[in-house]
Amino acid sequence: MRFLTDEETARLKQFRLLHDYLEEKQLEVDQANKNLGGLEPANRRG
Q1: What is the dihedral of CA 9, 4, 45, 1, to 10 degrees?
Q2: Phi, psi of 27 (to 5 degrees)
Q3: I want to staple 4 with a disulfide (CB 3.0 to 4.6 A). Which of 8, 35, 40, 45 is the partner?
Q4: Cα-to-chain-centroid distance, residue 41
Q5: Cα separation of 23 and 42, whole Å?
Q6: Is the pTM for the entire model greater than 0.70?
Q7: 3-class SS at 42?
């Protein structure tokens, strides 16, 4: 198991059924990481 790369995510966003879901999850992860501040990458959400 691993996290998707940015390139893989962009490719999957081309599928209409996944686009909105992936956009929503990316916003959720970005907001969670913003709330954590500048912590070590190991402590961030992926």
Answers
A1: 150
A2: -65, -40
A3: 8
A4: 14
A5: 23
A6: no
A7: helix
